[in-house]
Amino acid sequence: MGRVRFYLTRNSLVLGLVFFAMLLAAINYDNNLVYLILFWLVALVIVSMVYSHRNLKAVEIKPGAIWPVFAGSELRFGLQVHNQSPQPLCALVVRAQLNGEEVAEVIDEIGPGDTEQILLVAEAPQRGLYRIGGVRVDSEFPLGVFGTSRESTLAQPYIVYPEPRGESPFPDIIYDARDQQSGQQSGGDDFDGVRAYRPGEPQRHIDWKAVARGLPLMVKQFTGGGSGRLWFPWQALDGLDMEARLSQLTYWIIQADEQNLEYGLILPDRRFEPGRGTEHRHELLRALAVYRQPSP
Fold first, then answer.
1. Cβ contact 2:151 at 8 Å
2. What is residue 192's predicted lDDT score, i.e. its pLDDT?
3. The whole model's pTM is what?
4. What are the C-alpha distances in Å from 231 to residues 163, 174, 260, 273?
5. Alpha helices of 96-218 — where are they, by DSSP H?
6. Residue 186 half-sphere exposure toward CB, CA atoms < 13 A
7. 98-110 pLDDT, tens per residue?
């Protein structure tokens, strides 16, 4: 961490005026008691500077967990504030810049050798890959006459995914070559019942006969040797601007992941083969987040 720096507070300015008035009174009336009180208060202020410096000198900041979020939601950034001294640290204010917004958290006290876990929360209005520019710890302990400040450069990266929204249905599922040769549907050749319709699924899988009888929307399921793959191509969203396309692709990825479908992504400059799982989902969402990233 950086050096401990001192700064004047409003209290110090008021106290300076009081000291000046006391000094004038002591000189005019030659009052030894006023001199004694004035010098005692000045000594107290000087001693408080030593305690203020010691209160921040022992602070150590370590990055904690930071979770990927979607644009428009809350960004949560964890920090670990460690006390390296044998004395407690008091009245700390931890500040950080997140997405151009300063957020702060107050810590009343940290015991000797203890670590305090704090959580900073800010809005995440824009997609992209960012870094925490730095963290500053302030304190006006013990008298509030002088303030102390200490900065730490963490350079902790975090990512904001595009906002998941859109109304376009899923593109049609592309089946393996053996499925297409045998004419199988929905991943196989054996009927395996129906299930509730999920928004975004191709309408050709809906049991329209059941709908005609007044029943809710249901989707036919088949089992067999084939497996369907779902592709999300950039070109399928012609007519939308770039951010709207990214939001729609993000929405499709989330829906496909929740349905445990095998899905891939085709961008103008990159292609991601179909897959499943958390790692695959984050890889695709990250690609969308940094695609021609806008300036913050």
1. yes
2. 52
3. 0.69
4. 20, 8, 14, 9
5. 177-182, 208-212
6. 19
7. 777 788 999 999 9
